[in-house]
Amino acid sequence: MAYFPEALIAAPFLRTGEGVVVSPNERSLLRLIWRHPGLSRSEVTNHTDLTQQSVYRIIDQLAERDIVSLGSPKPGLGRGQPSPTLRLNGRYAYSCGISVNTDVIGICLMDIAGNILGETSVTLREHTMAQSLDLVRRELAQLQSLNKLSESAFFGIGFAISGYHVGGTRYNAPLPLHEWSLIELGPLLADLFGKPVWVHNGANTSTVAESMFGVGRYIKHFAYLSFNYGFGGGLIGGGELLLGGNGNAGEFSGIYDEEENRRRPALQYLIERLNRNGVDVPSITYMRRNFDVNWPGVAEWVNEVVPAHNRLINAIAAIFDPQAIVYGGQVPTDLAQMLIDRTQNFSKPRYGVPHPWPKLIISEIGSDASAMGAAVIPFRSAFY
């Protein structure tokens, strides 16, 4: 039987007598309030196709359910009765984002308003899948206790894993995650945690985090490069994550043949080169925290991957035509800047007019973007 997390959503979160959390109109208003916290109720009508009467009725219903909070009016907004300001009520629900990378599992608790309640991680090395998940459960329980969070407000879990999608909730992960590969993660994790679990590729959840908390706040069309043990990414078009026909849009490493594969900008190869040059780098997490552009092997690796990197950037610009390309994942900021500085635009001006070129931007999300994006996925799927 196919697995659908929506079927496991607890009854108190559902609309009375229905199997859904919110209606389409409620969803559109919740997304608007998410994007513009503090918007007054009277201002909402200008942003929708709904009548003022419908807007007020829907907001009143959402407020009755405690999903939306009504705040103090903005001063000086027109005549008549002051209109309350609107925000999502963070106390209504929270979620957990779990991101499985090759060396560490990131954990992020987030409320429905997008506030991060707590973050931690579990080292993956030398732990089985069962041992790792047991550690995650303990860390999750500790974060819940520290924040005095009730179990009844725990809406669901977003789960991210490195690797490409092969069907259902099965992913083909890199070698260090072989035990996690090609199994139905959704039902397994839902049984373990007792909550609905939305499963995604880690690069896609990082892309979602960027769209909700990073450049996506002002750029609606961008490509996200996820530098991890492997190398992939995601695509945002019109503010929405593009998954493609098989759920693998953004698998950028797929453009390289077998010989080119080892010269793509995957961080596993940089670590191998650093270790060969006498720099003890035990993990990608360690490298990100301690990166030094002067480490022996860094410049050599950049020189080697620049051709593959440049071909990809030009392919994305030509095929997807984004406003920006974001350098994210686990890449150290200084390393991302080295690649940006070496980027070459292959297109030639015509009649002296250059082809529009995307901005190359380093992600400013300092947290584990994959876990952060995984945490917002349940709310994005069900509420906004």
From TrEMBL:
Annotated InterPro entries: ATPase_NBD, ROK, WH-like_DNA-bd_sf, WH_DNA-bd_sf
SUPFAM superfamilies given in the database record: Actin-like ATPase domain, Winged helix' DNA-binding domain
Pfam families with a match to the protein in the record: ROK (PF00480)
Origin superkingdom: Bacteria
Name under which the protein is recorded: ROK family protein
UniProt source species: Rhizobium puerariae
